[in-house]
């Protein structure tokens, strides 16, 4: 079974631009979560989607948004990029629903550098 | 408030020595508990998890962890560390009725030859 796939793996943007990151979950997984990882703040929860609906949201500004499609694939978008948005963005999928055990399966991440 | 504390930011051990990484959590009820490992530039890989039952859980790569309810702890152990174990280790908790997983700050493990 294929794992969680994130694209692109690496990207460089300049301040003020916007970026879209993509995540394909493990087949059959209906929940997708996004995390931002930086050396100073560690792993911070961005949001979680289930059945195309945002179920949980972390404490990030409105510049960070996401969505989930009917096939469970998810995208996250960051608008008006700031230098501090440079980070590794990790996507994780889980079964959710009645089979939920809370276990997350992570992709390898998208490394965003903002210049 | 829900939180996870990993008191040790960086630990150095010699190859072959034993290892214990500490994790304490604060949660309203007993959550699900996890340990993940992250190699440089990679995503997180699950080492082991605790849901219920036996409080000593075995994981991959020879790791084990013990859940102690009275201490709100879930410490990770390995009897003999290998050089390939050098990585960052994260303790995580998630409620039994939600998908909002919270992570500790991580412990970076260095293995000396």
How would you describe the overall organization of this protein?
The complex is a heterodimer of chains A (115) and B (113). In chain A, 0% of the residues lie in helices and 52% in strands. Chain A has no helices and eleven strands. The model of chain A has no long low-confidence stretch (mean pLDDT 92). Chain B is mainly β and 113 residues long. Chain B is 0% helix and 51% strand. Chain B has no helices and twelve strands. Chain B has strands at residues 3-5, 10-14, 19-21, 24-26, 32-38, 44-50, 56-58, 64-68, 73-78, 87-94, 102-103, 107-112. In chain B, the strands form three sheets. In chain B, strands 2, 5, 6, 10, 11 and 12 form a six-stranded mixed beta sheet that branches. In chain B, strands 3-9-8-7 form a four-stranded antiparallel beta sheet, with no helix packed on it. In chain B, a hairpin with a 5-residue loop joins strand 7 and strand 8. Chain B is globular and about 45 Å long. At the A-B interface, strand 4, strand 5, strand 9 and strand 10 of A face strand 5, strand 6, strand 10 and strand 11 of B.
Outline of this structure?
Chain A has 115 residues and is mainly β. Chain A is 0% helix and 52% strand. Chain A is globular.
Write the layout of secondary structure elements.
The complex is a heterodimer of chains A (115) and B (113).
Chain A: E1 5-7, E2 10-13, E3 19-24, E4 31-38, E5 42-50, E6 53-57, E7 64-68, E8 74-78, E9 87-94, E10 105-106, E11 110-114
Parallel strand pairs in A: 2-11
Antiparallel strand pairs in A: 1-3, 3-8, 4-5, 4-9, 5-6, 7-8, 9-10, 9-11
Chain B: E1 3-5, E2 10-14, E3 19-21, E4 24-26, E5 32-38, E6 44-50, E7 56-58, E8 64-68, E9 73-78, E10 87-94, E11 102-103, E12 107-112
